[in-house]
């Protein structure tokens, strides 16, 4: 019995040693020089192999980045954190690499009840096919056709079709790959920075009268948004309002002013500035910079924000050197000691 | 001898096709039979590994296991060891010799390690007391049979893409049904070759 145990241990051990040694030798002899950065980049990428970058899988992209053929922030799924990691691997400045997260948004409100239909469509039920016939069944040539090509192409199931025939994007699920924006024949979907909550949900460049005739939710280029914007961030160009996403601070004044409800925001209410009492040293910096004079208070005393006036632009938060101001949305409670005035 | 070799090869390709008659290697059979091109690539890679394994298994069996009387319980363990290292070696050699071929094989090469046809071939050799030449013939035949199965299936599946399949049967369901029908067809080869 002991014999068998010894022979089996020896033979298997010897076999293992032989094969292992052979493999070790082979790996030395047959070693192929690979870029160590490629492996490091593969490690940093999400590894979902979704192909949103346009390369065959994450390893394909890693190779391209290491060879310098693709920029470090090519991965739309990983966004800024992944881009920073890859930038480090590639020895680049992190600041250049960072990208803000973008999400797909629907820039049309012409659903079944809002937009007029000019013809009945009985063909193949895809937006692409429908758009080829007389510019689509809806009277507005810019309107969402509503067969959900975007929903079909979404790799993460972030898009659902609402009852009104318009797509709805779940921004938490959206990975910002832009496939829906590519697929949509009407360019209704667009990638917009996530931090920008306000957008103009219409792209119709017809004259006001013509837009009004085909859709109740279309932009009529009244320019009221332009006048009300404190940051010069919205302008009417070519008969439709456009937001400069760099300048917009989500104050939502234009959303409230828009007579047709064309300008919409992700959230129904704006954020409000609240001052954390313990941290405020009464430097008046916030009050001086507030564009709507919502902040009052004497020097060296705790300041107060008039919640009725505050438009939630967040300038005071940026200016405050003591981190004493928080932007809080109604209903959200992430600050216990804030002097909320309401 | 030549007749016997012919019987072994034809037998393992048609009569005892490892996929359709022995129901081995079903995972890669269903997994990589989407496209004919990749299917044939996988088939060739597997054939190569199978032939190599047959040689290795013959030597392990006759020069390590049999002399020491270890065959009943160490057979599987040692074969797993050999197959795994063999595939590793093959991968390294291909990467060195032909990176293009390596890229073409891609993920299939390491996957072959877990293909149970490889294990079956290794175990069939001592079971039938094959000599070296016969072992190689069995490995080659098994590989060709697997390639044939993959090629047939991928061809059918490519056409199936355009077929009007009932909704409930779409996807893997219709593939399993197709595989079953193919298996029935291969049943017709029974008796073609008098097999040992």
UniProtKB/TrEMBL annotation, chain B:
Its main location: membrane. The chain crosses the membrane at residues 5-24, 39-60, 72-95, 101-125, 132-153, 173-195. GO terms for biological process: electron transport chain. It comes from the Bacteria. Belongs to the NqrDE/RnfAE family. Part of a membrane-bound complex that couples electron transfer with translocation of ions across the membrane. The complex is composed of six subunits: RnfA, RnfB, RnfC, RnfD, RnfE and RnfG. This is Ion-translocating oxidoreductase complex subunit A.
């Amino acid at each position: 019995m002991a014999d068998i145990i010894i022979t089996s241990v020896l033979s298997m051990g010897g076999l293992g040693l032989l094969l292992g040694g052979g493999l070790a030798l082979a790996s030395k002899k047959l070693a192929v020089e690979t870029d160590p950065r490629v492996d490091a980049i593969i490690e940093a990428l999400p590894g979902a192999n979704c192909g949103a970058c346009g390369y065959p899988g994450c390893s394909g992209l890693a190779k391209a980045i290491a060879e310098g053929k693709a920029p470090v922030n090519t991965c739309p799924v990983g966004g800024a954190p992944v881009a920073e990691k890859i930038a480090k691997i590639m020895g680049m400045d992190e600041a250049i690499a960072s990208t803000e997260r973008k999400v797909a948004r629907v820039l049309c409100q012409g659903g079944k009840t809002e937009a007029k239909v000019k013809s009945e469509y009985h063909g193949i039920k895809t937006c692409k096919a429908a758009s080829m016939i007389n510019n689509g069944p809806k009277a507005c040539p810019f309107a969402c056709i509503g067969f959900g090509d975007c929903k079909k192409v979404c790799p993460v199931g972030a898009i659902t079709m609402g009852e009104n025939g318009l797509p709805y994007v779940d921004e938490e699920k959206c990975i910002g790959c832009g496939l829906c924006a590519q697929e949509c024949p009407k360019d209704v979907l667009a990638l917009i920075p996530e931090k920008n909550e306000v957008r103009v949900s219409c792209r119709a460049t017809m004259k006001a009268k013509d837009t009004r005739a085909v859709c109740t939710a279309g932009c009529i280029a009244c320019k009221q948004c332009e006048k009300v914007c404190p940051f010069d961030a919205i302008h009417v160009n070519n008969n439709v309002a456009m937001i400069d996403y760099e300048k917009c601070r989500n104050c939502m004044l234009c959303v409230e002013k828009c007579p047709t409800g064309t300008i919409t925001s992700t959230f129904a209410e704006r954020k409000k500035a609240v001052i954390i009492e313990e941290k405020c040293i009464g430097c008046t910096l916030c009050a001086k910079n507030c564009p709507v004079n919502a902040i009052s208070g004497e020097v060296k005393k705790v300041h107060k924000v008039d919640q009725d006036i505050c438009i939630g632009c967040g300038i005071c938060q940026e200016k405050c050197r003591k981190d004493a101001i928080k932007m809080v949305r109604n209903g959200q409670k992430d600050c216990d000691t804030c002097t909320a005035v309401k | 001898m030549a007749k016997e070799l012919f019987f072994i090869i034809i037998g393992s390709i048609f009569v005892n096709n490892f996929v359709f008659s022995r129901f081995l290697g079903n995972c890669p059979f269903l997994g990589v039979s989407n496209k004919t091109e990749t299917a044939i690539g996988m088939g060739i890679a597997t054939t190569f590994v199978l032939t190599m394994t047959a040689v290795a298994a013959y030597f392990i069996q006759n020069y390590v296991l049999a002399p020491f009387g270890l065959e009943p319980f160490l057979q599987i363990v040692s074969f797993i060891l050999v197959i795994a290292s063999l595939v590793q070696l093959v991968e390294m050699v291909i990467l060195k010799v032909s990176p293009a071929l390596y890229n073409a094989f891609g993920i299939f090469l390491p996957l072959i390690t877990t293909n149970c046809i490889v294990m079956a071939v290794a175990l069939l050799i001592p079971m039938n007391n094959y000599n070296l030449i016969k072992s190689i013939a069995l490995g080659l035949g098994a590989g060709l049979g697997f390639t044939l199965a993959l090629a047939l299936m991928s061809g059918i599946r490519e056409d199936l893409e355009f077929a009007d399949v009932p909704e409930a049967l779409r996807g893997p369901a219709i593939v399993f049904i197709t595989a079953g029908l193919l298996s029935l067809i291969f049943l017709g080869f029974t008796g073609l070759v008098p097999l040992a």
